[in-house]
Specification:
The protein has about 500 residues and is an alpha+beta fold. It has 13 helices and 27 strands. The strands form seven sheets. The chain has a five-stranded mixed beta sheet with strand order 10-14-13-12-11. A four-stranded antiparallel beta sheet has the order 1-27-26-25, with no helix packed on it. Strands 2-3-4-5 form a four-stranded antiparallel beta sheet. A hairpin with a 3-residue loop joins strand 7 and strand 8 (about 165-170). It is globular, with a radius of gyration of 24 Å.
């Protein structure tokens, strides 16, 4: 009896003395957990994936040169490396901190930075760097990357979790820092200033529209990437969506109140028709005098790309955002960034009359119930054609019926407080099921296929991207090696 009382007293004292770093948000009325059935039925397809060449840790994102087939991959040691279409390593192309500590012009791969690069590699493959905030910041952590050709010049856009967004000329190796943590943020005067002006702490993913605007996510204004575990447990609306305008070189706040916004992907361009008034000069008579002019209306065709998908990891959903409409409504959408703020109210309205309110607010739910921890999303460049579009989602793990630990604890502040005080974060991460999962959606937001590896041999996926020439599926991960699934293991079509 005495021992029981003593243990109880010690537990209370420990509970009171150990600091709690969480500031959780209660998830009320979540959708029910889904089952792997029908089009999402369990299979073994991903188990056929093969490791690419090289021993590198955390191939978070992948981008392809669609002409040459070269692949570019961002790794956990701060380096972006290139590979052939068959997965053979070609060499490094960018080292974030080498660029920052150097001339702020090259690719950061100068010999002067080799000792640091070697240290970063050693710490990364030993799985120490991902838990070391200062160490990871010292090395840099490239996450989302995109390949883009502009006026016959090939560029690589790179998001670094700590240092911002960079644009690398792949021919001259000249690099420009487009966005840094110190870049001023433009926001509406009625926005929640306390949130709108916060320095981004967790740059995550990006995409570029036809007109060159860069949309990117900041997953948290409280935690850095190395502290993403407590951020995920918090489930708080601390994420934001921004847009960089290459003309003004300014950054604008599009949305706040997002729950761990992760991957982003523009939807396919659309053709819009506008009526414009055109002045037609009058005819000139024989004396050289022009007659009266006239004005007539003409229909003008314009190709636009304004709709972007945003993965909201701790709400297990994907949002669809119209960037132009959001900018028109940014005052109301960002007036409050709380759980019941402008974003929540816009989504609540859309639940009843989706299409009408989306046309006004520019915000709607694209996929309401993702069966896992959704990371990046990329367009399937191989099968998206003839008016049909397909999008690939990489998932860090599954979250399905009958039980999901994260889905459960997000609904209980008490459970999260106990876990945070008693269970080390490294152990919490080990509780996440090792499960390989890629989801496929059409442009209507319907999940139409899934690729699985229940054994966990391929797991903790961050991205799935089709090679534009071979059709192979390249698989990124925040913690595992780079893997490639040969095209012959994939279906000829997703539906």
């Amino acid at each position: 009896m005495l021992w029981t009382i003593l243990i109880g007293v010690l537990a209370v004292v420990y509970y009171q003395l150990v600091p709690n770093v969480l500031e959780p948000t209660l998830w009320e009325n979540p959708p029910p957990l889904t089952h792997f059935e029908g089009k999402l039925a369990v299979n073994q397809v991903l188990a056929n994936a093969q490791r690419a060449e090289g021993h590198y840790h955390g191939p978070e994102s992948i981008a392809f040169d669609s002409e040459l087939g070269t692949a570019y991959v961002s790794f956990g040691d701060g380096v972006v490396r290139s590979f052939s279409g068959e997965g053979k390593e070609l060499g490094p192309v960018f080292f974030t901190v080498g660029f920052i500590n150097g001339s702020m012009q090259g690719d950061g791969l100068d010999s002067a930075h080799e000792p640091l690069q070697n240290w970063c590699y050693t710490e990364s493959v030993a799985n120490r760097l991902a838990w070391d905030t200062e160490g990871e910041k010292r090395c840099g952590r490239p996450l989302g990357i995109r390949f883009r050709k502009e006026e016959d010049i090939k560029y690589l856009y790179i998001v670094d979790a700590y240092h911002g967004i960079f644009k690398l000329n792949l021919e001259t190796h000249y690099t420009v820092a487009l966005v840094t943590p110190d870049t001023p943020i433009k926001f509406h005067r009625l926005s929640d200033r306390s949130v709108a002006t916060k320095t981004p702490l967790f740059f995550n993913d990006l995409d570029i529209s036809l007109d060159g605007k860069v949309v990117f996510t900041d997953s948290s204004d409280r935690h850095t990437r190395s502290n993403n575990r407590p951020e995920i447990l918090d489930g708080a609306p601390r994420g934001r969506l921004f847009q960089y305008d290459p003309v003004t070189q300014g950054v604008s706040l599009l949305l706040c109140g997002l729950h761990f916004p992760n991957g982003v992907q523009f939807l396919a361009p659309k053709v819009e028709y506008h009526t414009e008034k055109v002045y037609i000069a009058g005819t000139v008579n024989g004396e050289g005098v022009a007659g009266p002019g006239t004005t007539e209306e003409r229909i003008v065709e314009k190709v636009v790309q304004q709709e972007v998908l945003v993965n909201e990891l701790t709400r297990f959903r994907v949002l669809k955002i119209n960037t132009d409409k959001v900018l028109d409504n940014v005052a109301s959408l960002t007036a409050s960034c709380d759980e019941d703020g402008g974003l929540y109210q816009a989504l609540a309205m859309n639940a009843h009359t989706d299409s009408e309110n989306y046309a006004i607010t520019g915000v709607t739910t694209f996929i309401p119930n993702i069966p896992g921890l959704v990371d990046n999303v990329r367009r399937d460049t191989k099968l998206s054609k003839d008016g049909k579009e397909y999008y690939l989602f990489g998932l860090g793990s599954k979250s399905t019926a009958p039980f999901s630990l994260l889905w459960t604890v997000l609904q209980s502040n008490l459970l999260r407080e106990i876990i945070e005080r008693v269970v080390p974060m490294k152990l919490v991460e080990k509780l996440v099921p090792r499960y390989g999962l890629v989801l496929v959606a059409n442009d209507e937001g319907e999940l139409i296929n899934a690729l699985h590896d229940p054994s966990g041999g391929v797991a903790m996926l961050s991205q799935a991207s089709r090679h534009p020439l071979t059709g192979d599926l390249w698989l990124g991960s925040h913690s595992e090696p780079l893997a490639i699934l040969p095209a012959h293991f994939l279906p000829e079509n997703w539906e």
